[in-house]
Design goal:
alpha/beta, globular, 9 strands, 9-stranded mixed β-sheet
Length: 195
Amino acid sequence: MSKSNTFVDREDLNQALEVLKAGGLLLYPTDTIWGIGCDATNAEAVEKIYALKERASEKSMIVLLWNDNQLASYVNEVPEVAYELIEASDRPMTIVYSNAKNLAKNALASDGSIGIRVAKHPFCEQLLQRFRKPIISTSANVSGASSPRNFSEISEEIKAGVDYIVKFGQEDVAEREPSIVLKLDPSGKFEFLRK
């Protein structure tokens, strides 16, 4: 990324923060594809995402953190291998952990698990650091439709359904892919769900 593509406008960041604090929905760029986001600890905000995406609420969401030090605040037992996997991965990686805690119950899978990714992205990192709570990240599409690989592929329906559309990254036409997903057992065993 060139320097101009990594500059985060303070006003853009402040607007996004205000929406998160008010329980609203954001359309924002991530280290993978564009996402719909909200405060991951606010069940009412999470419910708005399910409604916008027309998605069954038994499907869990993905949560973004800005640092792996935060994992212990949201997962009961973080196997040591989790930190090694995060460190070693050269691609964005979402890890599904058992026994999530301190997150909106409706963001979790029916078995209490949650997918968490440490986001490496200029806008996300600053937003997460300033918000000081995890943020939901789910693909910016109605359930069943294909995931948009850049901003230009996001439907008007999704754009109209959020409270704020982040300006950062809208001009980026690179086609992005979803993250690797793996499920990690408290014992440290893991399996890939998406490579």
